[in-house]
Specification:
heterodimer; A: FAD/NAD(P)-binding domain; FAD/NAD(P)-binding domain; 2 domains; 5-stranded parallel β-sheet; 7 helices; 18 strands; 28% strand; B: FAD/NAD(P)-binding domain; Alpha-Beta Plaits; 4 domains; 13 helices; 23% strand
Chain lengths: 345, 549
């Protein structure tokens, strides 16, 4: 990194932030990569590989490659356990500069940059207020928790008794497409994530049956039509369950309106997985406030995001729900926008 | 060589890329609009030649500039060389001309195919494809006789085949316009309503409030009867109430499938690019994100890359532009030793030429490695029947030097096997690193040899491991479909299977050789696989081979 280089602060060390940092560094722009947790990778680094006997292009492994590239690049300086606590922008010789205060543990540090990229990602919807027993029944988990379990232990077992589940229910659209929450957006990635996950578990733990409760199956990935044909090995029920209760023998009872029989049905499962949606993260909201951007995170329900002030850019799931592949692309666009801004400002 | 990019295509993505290059790689955000005029505005403009099969180029220059050339009615007939120096033959009705380019971008448009026949319908003034209908709706005055208040328009989207958010958006916007501006009644027949794109769930709510009626089907489908009066009579069982319904459409709008241009098939052959299962010119491999192909210096964007939404095209244009810049700056060159062909030993069997996934081997009087294009996968060296190819640090001797047996920690009597694991550095190598970081326990006497690609793991490597006192040997590759070199893992699998047969013949238990596929984030599985293997080999006991002299 040399002093004559233009500098960008990238906030967020997930797929988008890492990807943009790598792209910017290649273009000869110095990057201050700010991550509030103790490690790089964001949500993607908590996901498990969904391969069956072949890769299903979920993209989770992409982040490992990006971490490797970012940490090995001399133009990228990584600040872990750090958050942005203050920002003053000023014009020095008609050139906009951001004077940023970073807090790392208890220490404050000042950095000066020419542009800021918001890549602070999403927050998974917290389903405690949904009638699905999350937080009360151990065997009700979110998709992200299931991913982490599979990633850490290589197997899916019931948290309550460490038994292999014989059947699982996936409830889609938890916190998405929900007008009672004001969440007028489809989170895009959950159908693909849940279906790939179910096939992956079935491949590792033969005999495990999955049932999907859904509204509409959304497109995912490049090979959607092929994957769509494959999903019919699971049971698909077009209905969103009313509630989840625990049975006397520690299983889970779902009640739902069954469109086939036109009646309420009850089904028993060993585990219930909630496909929680994406919501704007707290860091995005805080940054938006600091940079005087109104309601920025709520671009989630819009077609076009709110225009940003000069020198401020955004990428990835901070903008709207995005898959890993889309985040990589979004980061490339942001890097190109920043490159153009640096050339012209 | 002076930089010049060959751009294939004639639509918005091609025009966007032309603009980006002519402005010196800097794209003004969101320029991907109907305006296809380009001008060489920047001093750092990159010359572009746009080549299209069409008779008229829709991408035209705003001003005359020698930096922008257009060739219409022209196809690519041949290509040799590599990134930085592609020699391409252009053919048109007047003849063929050779040209040289530093990079190539493929941005051919897709083809929209109306799905009338899937519903037993045929095109008529009142039965229209979605594109035709959008065209009528967008061209003033819109109040065509069929589009008047009180009439009913029925839209079919994603019924026979799954649809796409981009098409669903067009349908919802059309319905909204018909309902609110023209006082028509609209109905949407679909299976899975694709709202997975910016603002579509909100738009869906808006259409519902405006009175658009939706029927969603799961396992039954409506039947259509097209009458001579232009009306279509529709009968179906409603999915929610299970009641029979009939409807009469004054206007019926049928959705379309988006197919890759058939030209992509030729381009894939000429440029040696792997396609996906639909025929798009980018394989379904996460290492190609976002606009890469298996060929360095050849990129794919827009509807050449996949059936993706035009809403990402602007991003793809910009990503292509910065990727070209990084390429030009040499930032995407793979460091390290590259493949070398020993001319004296080469028998010109062309195995390497046919095998190289990056097309980094060219033919002069004999095969020659294009050093910059070589990605060090080692497939050529491992497969060469004459053993005429080597990558310095991947020679069997170099690998053998890494194969020092690990001594036992203490002198207890139990047998602890010495294991050698050959790991693909992109997948298993990273999984190993994560396993160590996560504090997972690994076999005590495990020697790990990382190679750039499992495609380089030859039978000689595996035999060398056994010769260096390994009691068991692991080959850990990436999953099928995830190999950066497309087929390295498949070759490794084939070789391992073959060597197992040979081991059996020479009296070694073939179970002492194991191949597993792992992803870079599978730390737990790395630990589990190696530990399980250790246990298995410990039970089998030490390998005793009669070694000569």
């Amino acid at each position: 990194m040399n002093s004559s280089m233009k500098q960008v602060m990238v906030v967020g060390g997930g797929v988008s932030g890492l990807s943009a940092a790598v792209d910017l560094a290649r273009l000869g722009i110095a990057v201050e990569l700010v991550e509030n947790s103790g490690s790089l990778g964001g949500h993607a680094a908590q996901l498990s590989c969904k391969a069956t006997d072949h890769c299903v292009s979920c993209g989770a492994c992409v982040v490992e490659e990006k971490i490797r590239q970012a940490t090995g690049d001399a133009n990228i300086r990584v600040h872990l356990n750090s958050s942005v606590v203050n920002n003053n922008s000023n014009d020095v010789n008609r050139r906009k500069r951001f004077d940023v205060t970073l807090k790392q543990d208890q220490e404050m540090q000042h950095i000066e940059v020419d542009a800021v990229l918001i890549a602070s990602g999403f927050a998974p919807f917290h389903p405690a207020n949904k009638p699905y027993g999350y937080g009360r029944f151990e065997n009700v988990m979110t998709t992200l928790e299931l991913d982490l379990m599979l990633r850490k232990s290589g197997a899916v077992k019931r948290p309550s008794d460490a038994a292999f589940p014989r059947n699982m229910a996936f409830i889609q659209c938890v916190g998405s497409r929900d007008s009672s929450l004001g969440h007028l957006w489809c989170s895009k990635i959950c159908c693909g994530a849940a279906l790939r996950m179910a096939s992956c578990i079935q491949n590792r733990q033969p005999g495990m049956k999955s049932t999907f409760f859904y509204i509409d199956i959304q497109n995912f990935g490049k090979n959607f039509q092929t994957d769509y044909a494959d999903m019919h090995r699971h049971i698909l029920i077009r209905s969103i369950p009313a509630d989840v209760l625990k049975t006397a023998d520690d299983r889970l009872k779902l009640s739902y309106f069954d469109p086939d029989t036109q009646a309420y049905q009850e089904s028993i499962f060993d585990m219930v997985i909630l496909s929680v949606g994406l919501t704007p993260s707290v860091s995005t909201r805080n940054l938006a406030a600091m940079l005087n951007i109104d309601m920025y995170g709520f671009a989630y329900a819009r077609k076009t995001p709110i225009p940003l002030p000069a020198g401020v850019f955004a990428a990835g799931a901070a903008l709207e729900p995005m898959s890993i592949a889309e985040s990589v692309l979004s980061a490339g666009k942001a890097a190109s926008d920043i490159f153009h801004y640096m050339k012209t400002s | 060589m002076k930089e010049r990019t060959l751009l294939l295509g004639n639509g918005p993505v091609a025009s966007g890329i032309a603009k980006a290059l002519l402005s010196g790689y800097a794209v003004v955000a969101d320029t991907l609009v109907a305006d296809t005029r380009v001008s060489a505005t920047s001093a750092s403009a990159i010359p572009v030649m746009l080549v299209t099969q069409d008779t008229v180029a829709s991408v035209v220059m705003g001003d005359t500039s020698p930096l922008f050339e257009v060739q219409t009615e022209t196809r690519i007939s041949h290509c040799t060389g590599s990134a930085g120096d592609f020699q391409v033959i252009l053919s048109n009705p007047f003849g063929s001309t050779p040209q040289t380019f530093t990079n190539i971008v493929i941005a051919e448009d897709g083809i929209q195919r109306p799905l009338f026949s899937l519903y037993g319908l045929s095109a008529s003034p009142t039965v229209l494809s979605l594109s035709e209908f959008r065209h009528i709706l967008d061209s003033p005055p819109v109040s065509k006789h069929a589009l008047s208040a009180g009439k009913t328009a029925v839209f079919i989207v994603g019924l026979a085949v799954e649809s796409h958010p981009h098409l669903v958006e067009a349908v919802m916007e059309s319905c909204l316009k018909l309902q609110t501006e023209l006082g028509m009644k609209t109905m949407i027949l679909t299976r899975n309503l694709k709202v997975g794109a910016s603002g579509l769930e909100a738009l869906y709510r808006q259409t519902r409030e405006a009175g658009v009626v939706y029927f969603k089907f799961s396992d039954t489908l409506p039947t259509f009867q097209q009458d001579a009066d232009g009306k279509v009579r529709i009968a179906f069982v409603d999915d929610i109430t299970r009641m029979p319904f009939t409807a009469e459409a004054d206007i019926t709008v049928v959705d379309e499938a988006i197919d890759p241009s058939p030209y992509l098939k030729d381009l894939s052959r000429i440029f040696c690019i792997d396609t996906d299962s639909y025929g798009y010119i980018q394989s379904d491999n996460v290492h190609r994100l976002s606009v890469f192909t298996n060929r360095k210096g050849i990129m794919a964007a827009g509807a050449s890359r996949g059936m993706l939404s035009p809403s990402t095209w602007q991003a793809e244009v910009q990503e292509t532009a910065i990727t070209l810049l990084s390429l030009t700056k040499g930032k995407l060159t793979t460091p390290g030793n590259k493949a070398e062909i020993h001319a004296g030993a080469c028998v010109r069997c062309l195995t390497c030429f046919r095998l190289c996934p990056y097309h980094a081997i060219t033919l002069n009087t004999r095969p020659v490695v294009i050093t910059d294009a070589c990605e060090r996968c080692g497939m050529c060296a491992a497969e060469c029947p004459a053993k005429a190819i080597r990558i310095e640090d991947l020679r069997v001797q170099a690998i053998s030097e890494l194969l020092r047996p690990i001594p036992c920690r203490d002198n207890n009597d139990s047998f602890i096997p010495f294991l050698v694991a050959f790991c693909c550095s992109r997948s298993a190598g990273r999984a190993k690193e994560l396993a160590i970081l996560s504090g997972l326990s690994l076999p005590e006497r495990l020697s790990i040899i990382e190679v750039p690609c499992s495609g380089s793991i030859s039978a000689e490597y595996l035999l060398a491991a056994f010769r260096h006192q390994a009691d068991g040997v692991l080959v850990l590759t990436c999953h099928e479909g995830n190999c950066h070199s497309e087929r390295g893992n498949i070759l490794a699998k084939r070789r391992t299977a073959h060597l197992k047969l040979m081991l059996k013949q020479i009296g070694i238990d073939p179970n002492r050789l194991l191949l597993k596929t792992l992803a870079s984030n599978m730390a737990a599985e790395f630990a589990e696989t190696t530990s399980k293997f250790e246990k298995q080999i410990a039970e089998a006991g030490p390998l005793r081979i009669a070694r000569q002299g």
